[in-house]
Design brief:
Layout lengths: L5 H12 L30 H6 L1 E5 L10 E3 L5 E3 L4 H4 L4 H9 L8 H11 L3 E7 L28 H12 L2 E7 L14 H19 L3 E5 L13 H14 L4 E2 L13 E2 L14 E7 L16 H12 L3 E7 L9 H15 L11 E2 L9 E6 L2 E6 L9 E4 L5 E7 L6 E6 L2 E6 L9 E8 L12 E6 L10 E5 L3 E3 L15 E9 L5 E10 L1 E6 L2 E6 L6 E9 L5 E9 L5 E8 L2 E5 L5 E2 L2
Parallel strand pairs: 1-4, 1-10, 4-5, 5-6, 6-7, 8-9, 9-10
Antiparallel strand pairs: 2-3, 11-12, 12-13, 13-18, 14-17, 15-18, 16-17, 19-20, 19-22, 21-28, 22-27, 22-30, 23-26, 23-28, 24-25, 24-27, 28-29
Helix pairs in contact: 5-6, 5-10, 9-10
Protein name: alpha-L-fucosidase
Family: Belongs to the glycosyl hydrolase 29 family.
Keywords: Glycosidase, Hydrolase, Signal
């Protein structure tokens, strides 16, 4: 690690003193009743913008951008890569540092980048503040391996501050990518010295939060790997996530803050893929490239079409996901024109005839199965069928229903053609009278009546009995009412100060009252063991010790009826998690709310 002169050393010492890494409570000791579950991300006000906005811009930009995807080896051969070029092309560190000294993104134009995002319909931006190369894209006080102190860039400019102002002015939220894995910091790979690196990482993250007030932090580099060795553990992730929520309770944080599991962070991060169905147990966002690289590579001209990209956005929305689409500025800080063109074309589609209603604020169609001819999303009492395979003249589109509901009306956005809807077999046939409005997707808006929903309940939660052993034996140590089964005790927490962090068990009893009469999917997120009974029937039996995992069961529940429920949980050693969610064709996935749970 290279440091500046004494002045910087003093600043670093002060930063680290103010940013000490919280010590972990020994797993075998007494706990303080800590629960790391901040809220239910599926319903929290904190995450509402993330669930509504759906479409964001990813920006990969760093010292690697200066090479623009090509490295000339000493033997005259050329090695090609982008953001991984240092590692994949085996560039010696001194040589890599030398090229970074010439990095001068003088043409970086925050207003132009934000305009490109706005024109695309994007509602948030995430930029790499530090990628795996360890190079900070802001004037950090922690080291001199950053854009201000180790480049030819204007020392008075701060591209993150510029992007923050432009984003705020445009009403777009800004977030930061930050790599845990660090190829440059010499303390990182050795577990003996890793705590020194960790303190510097905490100091940098505090700088980012305090200086730029990001809405989101997007971590990466959490996996087990080498070149260099990565010592990051789930315990490290627990401490970091807890620390960040102490800095800003409103932060939205991805699951790579830990080990990319359903129990880490607020949302999952499938990369370069779109799940085929809604993701169980966690919000999610698919990140993808416009071509074949994240960082700029001048040789890569394999651009995806605007049609493909728009259909990807529709697919993610129809499964309640977000779409984070990447651009990679070149060495001068300019976003390639093919990227700008495709983003503008996506925005044109979203703005035409109100077709953006199928994306912004929309979610999983739920009431119907996903059709082969397109994607269906839902917003309130409307279904938006984005048709990518328009029927031949006189033909129809079939929707298979998942529950009983009535279609009240139908129309093609941007067209006055007549649309006929008739019940047919296991669903509805939709027959438009005219042609498709465009080649990307034509949206049919269906106004629906999903059927009766009872009034919200008046429950206060379930009866909770806590045992200071893992076998639910003897008299409970604590008996109380638990508002919701939404717990993430992790390594260091437990249900109460008098209960150890390891070897405890809990029983919840009472009743659950749905607001709709449907077949529900009950989902447990648990570690170590869990089981669930509904009306005396064991429906989830996950009573073999396991790592964090999901278990599901389908049960028929009747609106207004209180169905008896019993949930048992046991923690042996290590992490402790227990969440109970429900979903149905008419009910979005969420932790079962307090209002629908009763102690008897």
């Amino acid at each position: 690690m290279r440091h500046r002169a004494t002045g910087l050393a003093l600043l670093l010492a002060a930063a680290l003193a103010a940013t000490a890494v919280p010590a972990a409570t020994a797993g075998s000791g007494r706990a303080d009743g800590t629960d790391h579950a901040a809220d239910d991300p599926f319903t929290a006000d904190r995450t509402n913008w993330f669930r509504q906005d759906r479409f964001g811009m990813f920006i990969h930009f760093g010292a690697y951008s200066n090479l623009e995807g090509e490295y000339k080896r000493p033997d005259g051969s050329t090695c090609r890569n982008a953001e991984w070029i240092k590692r994949e092309c085996d560039i010696p560190m001194d040589e890599y540092e030398k090229q970074a000294q010439n990095f001068n993104p003088a043409d970086f134009d925050a207003k132009a980048i934000v305009k490109a995002a706005k024109d695309a319909g994007m509602r948030y931006i995430v930029i790499t503040s530090k990628h795996h190369e360890g190079y900070a894209m802001w004037p950090t006080k922690v080291n001199d391996w950053n854009l201000r102190d180790h480049s030819s860039f204007d020392k008075n400019r701060d591209i993150l501050a510029e992007l923050k102002k432009a984003s705020d002015d445009a009403g777009i939220k800004l977030g930061f990518y930050y790599s845990i894995w660090d190829w440059h910091d010499k303390d990182f790979p050795d577990p003996a010295t890793f705590p020194k690196y960790e303190k510097r990482m905490y100091a940098q993250l505090k700088e980012l939060v305090d200086t730029y007030d990001p809405a989101l932090l997007w971590f990466d580099g959490e996996w087990d790997t080498d070149k260099p060795h990565n010592p990051w553990t789930a315990r490290d992730g627990e401490r970091l996530e807890s620390y960040l929520r102490g800095l800003d309770p409103d932060l939205v944080i991805n699951n790579r803050v830990g080990k990319r599991r359903v129990v880490d962070g607020d949302y999952g991060t499938p990369e370069q893929e779109i799940p085929g169905a809604p993701v169980d147990g966690q919000l999610w966002e698919s990140c993808m490239t416009l071509n074949d690289h994240w960082g700029y590579a001048r040789h890569d001209q394999n651009w995806k079409s605007a049609q493909t990209l728009t259909r990807n956005l529709l697919a993610t929305t129809s499964r309640s996901g977000n779409y984070l689409l990447n651009v990679g500025p070149d060495a001068r800080g300019r976003v390639p024109q093919p990227s700008v063109d495709r983003l503008r074309q996506m925005g044109d589609w979203l703005r035409t005839a109100g077709q953006g209603e199928a994306v912004f604020g929309a979610r999983y169609g739920g009431l119907v199965e996903e059709p082969a001819w397109g994607h269906v999303s839902r917003k309130g009492d409307k279904l938006y069928a984005a048709v990518t395979q328009w029927p031949a003249t006189g033909g129809s589109l079939h929707l298979k229903v998942r529950t009983d509901f009535e279609v009240k009306s139908a129309r093609v956005l941007g067209s006055d053609q007549k649309v006929t809807v008739t019940r047919s077999g296991d669903g509805y046939d939709i027959k438009p009278s005219g042609a498709a409005t465009n080649d990307t997707a034509t949206v049919v808006e269906l106004r629906v009546d999903p059927g009766p929903t009872s009034r919200p309940g008046r429950g206060k939660g379930l009866k909770q009995e806590i045992f200071d052993n893992e076998n639910l034996e003897g008299a409970p140590r604590i008996t109380r009412t638990d508002a919701t089964l939404n717990h993430s005790w992790k390594y260091t927490g437990s249900p109460a100060a008098s209960i150890p962090a390891d070897r405890f068990s809990i029983r919840w009893t009472g009743s659950v009252e749905p607001r709709r009469s449907e077949t529900y999917t009950l989902t447990t997120v648990s570690d170590d063991m869990a089981r669930v009974w509904i009306d005396g029937k064991l429906v989830i039996d996950s009573w073999t010790p396991h790592e964090p995992r999901l278990d599901k069961a389908e049960v028929r529940l009747t609106a207004g009826r209180r169905h008896s429920i019993k949930v048992e949980y046991a923690e042996r050693t290590g992490e402790a998690h227990l969440k109970l969610l429900w979903s149905s064709p008419g009910q979005e996935q969420q932790v079962i709310p307090r209002s629908q749970l009763y102690t008897r």
